[in-house]
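Our consortium's second objective concerns turning raw sequence data into structural hypotheses that experimental partners can test. To show how far this objective has progressed, the report includes one record in full. It was chosen at random from the queue rather than selected for favorable results. The single chain below, 309 residues long, was entered without modification.
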Amino acid sequence: MKKPKILVVGSSNTDMIVKVPRIPQPGETILGGKFVTAAGGKGANQAVAAARAGGDVTFIARVGNDIFGRQAISGFAQDKINNRFVFRDKHHPSGVALIFVAGDGQNSIAVASGANACLSPADVKHSKFAFAHTDVMLVQLETPLETVLTAIQLAAKNGLPVILNPAPARRLPASLLRLVSVLTPNENEAELLTGIKITNDDAVARAAKNLRSRGVKSVIITLGARGAFVSDDDGERRVPGFKVKAVDTTAAGDVFNGALAVALAEGRSFDDAVRFACAAAALSVTQFGAQPSAAKRVDIQALLSATRQ
């Protein structure tokens, strides 16, 4: 089967991770943590996840002309990601994320955007060839909003479905939301976007309805281990998740989105695509690190097959 072509526009970071018993409180120091580095950044995570899930991926991004940038590009090549449009910035360093990961798998993250903040509308327009040769575009919010909007507008001009993962959470203009095919917030992001406090399933449904009323074609609110809530023209329902032992939840949402893009581009039904993405995300939380945790297609299919028995 021919691989679906996925275009990802977004950020690339190097994650500096400290494993701690619990997330420190403000002003608190916790000793004894283990330190590791791993490739990260929401855009890069999603590109890698899509590639490992079976996609033919092109990535548009900006990295610094430094060791982190060189390591990132080398990593993309190893995953057979087309990095022709990963620009090297001579004036700004590569993005860096500082991450605490607690014993229960929860995390706390701070990001220094570096070159990611300089990914420009001009960069996107310079990459317009990629938009003419793809099936689905996936984008997030770790790069400037005007750049995200330019990418979405260019995708719409080329008739491409657009998946927007609205993370990190921020308010979005209606003009942008109307061009989005699939919006994939988690519960916190849905709450910020709508002003609806997410306390139960009814609130999740109301938040999804609110977002669709603004012109978004389909909404998927991810619910962690509980799966995902889907709202589209076929109605509202919850797609169940998978029970696994979480080690590190970093990038679970990114893995979900990368796998979702592949499944939708392959022409799977919406619910089957969400189930495929939930399986990929479940596998990711059983591994440590962002990109290192992205699941391979064979493992996603194995988990899906095992749960059908």
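The partners drew two points from this record. The first strand starts at residue 5 and ends at 9. The two ends are 25 Å apart (CA to CA). Both points have been shared with the crystallography group to help prioritize constructs.
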